[in-house]
Amino acid sequence: MLLETLIDKATQNDAKTVAVAAAEDKEVIEAVLDALNRNLAHFLLFGDQEKIKSILQLKGIDANSENRLTIIHTASLAEAADSAVKAVSSKEAHVLMKGNLPTNIILKSVLNKEFGLRTGSVLSHTAVFEVPGFERFIIVTDAAMNIAPDLQLKVQIAKNAVALAKAIGIETPKIAPIAAVEEVNPAMQATLDAAALTMMNRRGQIKGCLIDGPLALDNAISTLAAEHKGIQSEVAGEADILLVPAIEVGNALYKSLIYFANAKVGAVISGAKAPIVLTSRADSAESKLYSLALALCSV
């Protein structure tokens, strides 16, 4: 299993610490305990102390006897977010993880000018999928952060995805900027941006990867589809990274892979001082665990 290899890879690194904001959530605690069982990391759990201890007790864990867990009580969700972000910015922790709180609250802390995690780079969502029938990772970006990225933003999103791909062992990731057609059409901005990204890559403005587009989804991932269309490309049919033109495309693709294809996924926010595990509150404990492993591999 591809995503299991990320867990193996993460355990080979030196022990890291994860700061969890608003950890009082059953799925989050389940992922944390699974990570502890696999020796992935130590954890700082920020949130309602009594609720966190109660959930741990239901799982048969005595918080006082587990030295890899530290619970820090906070009086509100905003305080939990601020405290977790401060722990990462001060290097007490290496990874930030979102618990049971709205995304806007934790992002407000991440973007805080005094203690936040901004670097000047664009923050983008990068999801790594294990799709049945594929012997490689399929990476989708950006499905959750940037709504309608222009060319400049797409360059940064691509660079974030390349850095993550390299961290999980893809030496020269192949990027397919996705559009509805394979030809450049002045009426379709996605095709113009794709062509520009391709040329920027060929001229060395985007390094460490291969970019070719525009490509429709079928001929980005299927060599048979690319052959039928007569597309000759080092990327067509073999794309590692699918760079989507807008959040609606990414969101639909992300959920289609999970619900239609039974794919498994781990996802992080890239471009900050440290990886951010920003999974949905509806995501499974398994997905949260894979996201944790992905983040730890990219520290």
- Please identify the structural class as seen in this structure: alpha/beta
Q: Return the average pLDDT rounded to an integer.
A: 94
> Would you identify the regions where 5 or more consecutive residues have pLDDT less than 50?
none
Sheet bearing the most strands, described?
Answer: 6 strands, mixed
Q: How many DSSP helices?
A: 11
Quaternary structure classification: single chain
Rg over CA atoms? 20 Å
Q: Tally the beta strands.
A: 11
Chart the SSEs and their pairings:
Elements: H1 2-12, E1 16-21, H2 26-37, E2 41-47, H3 49-58, E3 69-73, H4 77-89, E4 95-98, H5 103-110, E5 124-130, E6 138-141, H6 151-167, E7 174-177, H7 189-202, E8 210-211, H8 217-221, H9 223-228, E9 241-243, H10 247-259, E10 264-270, E11 276-277, H11 285-297
Parallel strand pairs: 1-2, 1-4, 2-3, 4-11, 6-9, 7-8, 7-9
Antiparallel strand pairs: 5-6, 5-10
Helix pairs in contact: 1-11, 2-11, 4-5
3D architecture notes:
The protein has 299 residues and is α/β, with parallel strands linked by helices. Helices cover 41% and strands 17% of the residues. The chain has helices at 2-12, 26-37, 49-58, 77-89, 103-110, 151-167, 189-202, 217-221, 223-228, 247-259, 285-297, and strands at 16-21, 41-47, 69-73, 95-98, 124-130, 138-141, 174-177, 210-211, 241-243, 264-270, 276-277. A 6-stranded mixed sheet has the order 8-7-9-6-5-10, with helices on both faces. Strands 3-2-1-4-11 form a 5-stranded parallel sheet, with helices on both faces. α2 (26-37) links the parallel β1 (16-21) and β2. The longest helix has 17 residues, at 151-167.
